[in-house]
Give the backbone structure.
Amino acid sequence: MTLQRSIISDSAPALELHDVSFVRNKRPILSDIKLTVEAGEHWAILGPNGAGKSTLLAMCGAVSHPTSGTVRVLGAQLGRVELQALRTHIGHVNPRHPLTSGLSIQEVVLTGLTGTIDRPMRWGPTDAQVRSADELIDLLGLAGKTESTWPTLSQGERGRALIARALIAEPQLLLLDEPSTGLDVAAREQLLETIDNLDSTHPHIASILVTHHLEELPTSTTHALLLSHGRITMQGPIQQTLTTDSISHCFEHPISVTQHDGRWTARAGKAASSPAA
Ligand SMILES: Nc1ncnc2c1ncn2[C@@H]1O[C@H](COP(=O)(O)OP(=O)(O)OP(=O)(O)O)[C@@H](O)[C@H]1O
């Protein structure tokens, strides 16, 4: 653990991408990506299908290397550190979590400490780790469900359990890949509230959330990056970035953007030249 701690820097930005490109089968998937995410910032990556959002998130999660350019995650440069060790500092919430066995919520949360999908053989949590799992389960509104098993959980409960799983390893960077996928409106709202609460319970965590839908942005989102055909079309503080013009340009369709009580709405409409109200 001491060795793993030493590969990251507490004072570095959570993420720094310089002139990043990613090429597959001679096809550019990402080009000219520049991005800096500081501790405590909450970014959203938005863009149409195939824009490269998941590919970008994979790099931010130390899952893949860039073809060119540099990516520093928590101060550690990809290519110079062991990705597996770096990933222990990153909480990655994937709603398509490939668990098939009947682990309890508590056991699922504890797998966040081992970085495995299932419970590893010959590994047992300490009492303190079990307490920490139970505290997070409570924090995410799942108290009383600790013993419920994965196959019996609703999609919304799974989403919240996966956030608890990501948080148990005390990551400095939290990646949320379309966390509202498959949720009904009530479950989505509960999940967004949960994510908003992290801002006060875990104020130093930086987060990146990928979504297609402006309606799925938590009110705590501070910044946005718009991606189209593998290129950034706009990025910066959310108020300046999510506008009718910028979203219409990114999605190549006239879309009217409005904001009310910190939540965003997008509707087909005429692209106007003024920023979102
Ligand atoms: N390993 C790969 N080999 C070849 N092409 C790939 C690979 N991974 C992704 N792509 C292509 O790169 C492009 C971007 O894919 P990516 O999944 O990152 O987009 P996305 O914005 O997340 O899309 P969606 O919103 O549909 O999930 C797509 O055209 C995809 O087909």
Observations:
- Residues 99-170 form one domain.
